[in-house]
Known about the structure:
The complex is a heterodimer of chains A (246) and B (326). With 246 residues, chain A is an alpha/beta fold. Chain A has helices spanning 40-48, 72-77, 95-103, 113-119, 124-127, 138-152, 171-183, 195-198, 218-229, and strands spanning 2-11, 14-24, 29-33, 57-62, 65-66, 80-83, 156-160, 187-191, 203-208, 211-216. Chain A has one domain: P-loop containing nucleotide triphosphate hydrolases (Rossmann fold), CATH 3.40.50.300. A 6-stranded mixed beta sheet of chain A has the order 6-7-8-3-9-10, sandwiched between helices. A 4-stranded antiparallel beta sheet of chain A has the order 2-1-4-5, with helices on one face. Chain B has 326 residues and is mainly β. Chain B has one domain. The model of chain B is unreliable at 1-8 (pLDDT under 50). Classes of the chains: A alpha/beta (246), B mainly beta (326). The A-B interface holds A 48, 50-51, 71-73, 75-77, 80-82, 84, 87-93, 101-102, 104-105, 148, 152 and B 235, 299-302, 304-313, 319-320, 322-326.
Amino acid sequence: xxxxxxxxxxxxxxxxxxxxxxxxxxxxxxxxxxxxxxxxxxxxxxxxxxxxxxxxxxxxxxxxxxxxxxxxxxxxxxxxxxxxxxxxxxxxxxxxxxxxxxxxxxxxxxxxxxxxxxxxxxxxxxxxxxxxxxxxxxxxxxxxxxxxxxxxxxxxxxxxxxxxxxxxxxxxxxxxxxxxxxxxxxxxxxxxxxxxxxxxxxxxxxxxxxxxxxxxxxxxxxxxxxxxxxxxxxxxxxxxxxxxxx
Amino acid sequence: xxxxxxxxxxxxxxxxxxxxxxxxxxxxxxxxxxxxxxxxxxxxxxxxxxxxxxxxxxxxxxxxxxxxxxxxxxxxxxxxxxxxxxxxxxxxxxxxxxxxxxxxxxxxxxxxxxxxxxxxxxxxxxxxxxxxxxxxxxxxxxxxxxxxxxxxxxxxxxxxxxxxxxxxxxxxxxxxxxxxxxxxxxxxxxxxxxxxxxxxxxxxxxxxxxxxxxxxxxxxxxxxxxxxxxxxxxxxxxxxxxxxxxxxxxxxxxxxxxxxxxxxxxxxxxxxxxxxxxxxxxxxxxxxxxxxxxxxxxxxxxxxxxxxxxxxxxxxxxxxxxxxxx
Lengths: 246, 326
Ligand SMILES: Nc1ncnc2c1ncn2[C@@H]1O[C@H](COP(=O)(O)OP(=O)(O)OP(=O)(O)O)[C@@H](O)[C@H]1O
Ligand SMILES: [Mg+2]
């Protein structure tokens, strides 16, 4: 469904992403593991087409169509969306309105906006009329973001650390939401630092120094990540030469 | 309601004018029926004619015509808990004209009251509306004042609202000035609040300027009493060749007074201009004053978030701007 080939992005003269190859299949949960600063959010931005993140090389193909140069709205209309690591705040926009706006372009609607909100553990009675502004806590805002992409019923959703800032007891709830996407036919590109969250993926990739080193079974990738990446010197440094791990 | 009854409640011979003003009131978001509802206190001034001045127990409304407008005196008895808002409606229906309103508000000790004011200048080509308000909120009383403007598309309005607000100990005052429909023309808003001990004041202005509109907002908070708290907030969107200047001022004259100036001005298009001038003066070292100002185009992340939900860029900007001016 998503094929990323030889992707390269230079920011401030520095190759933040390079030689990046990634395949995400239909309705699969694909997790990305990588230390801080290895390029995960940057990859999310490039896939969504955010301004300032035009790739300097490579191709992004979605459902057989080259979308490398398409604007954000066009990608969204084809079913790609992103839940930001630090979601934007909106003055004067209620949670209910935000979810309704998100659902406007949904292809099908298995869940109502109210159900989406309940699904992420926020009661509609309490949250529907709240503003999506600075008065929401970080965790609440992230949950609203998750509800919003859920309401959109995307073909591919990129979740940038949906579990960060979520209290330990609620991680199970977030995992359940991620599974809901896949059950409803959405593919999920899941960026996370939590191994137990990454473990629900069908496949996993490890991102290091701006490139994907390995893709495969989540348990194997998690092991690889633990043994190599956590001590790795490539954080914030692009890997230029071929890396060989045992 | 039959016309004959309505006739009795308003200035004789003015029912047609009243009807047009009511329509205009309705199109600016007001509920026109309340203007004739005897359970609600109201004041209706068309150009320099007082069409209706209706009091209810505890809320006395007095209106008097002057050669250029009207003088109004609004008195709320101590302890009154006004059941619903007091409705104020000001308008100039012809293309040209001057309307000067001098309004005095006395809110008695412990009273609680809110005002909904609507100002309509639907046909303005050269209309000047001056509002000079003196507001006194006594000890422990609370007043809310929301003013919404409806201007026609021609932009020929000059609006000069000034308010001098005195808040006694523990009093609170909250105002929201909105001019987001039609062309602004020229707006010079000047609100000054003086706060005694434990008083609370929130001034909020939301303006959408287009074409050649000129906007000046001056909100000043004098935090004269211990523990007094004030917020001067403004949200301006300036499109086309609109020029906007916002001065938010707070003066900390007393221990533990807290003031905050919060200004957001969004520019749409390369020719619009915005200036933000926060002015903070600390006289008592125990006072704490802060400000935040953001001027620029619409926040990129907000727009991109909405675009990632399938909206076009224009639609997304619209949603952000509408929210800000809401
Ligand atoms: N506009 C930019 N100009 C220069 N460098 C940038 C820019 N944006 C990001 N970077 C750098 O690119 C690298 C990758 O950043 P990115 O935000 O993608 O990391 P991440 O893997 O998401 O990290 P985290 O786990 O902390 O969220 C970092 O070294 C960052 O400093
Ligand atoms: Mg990140």
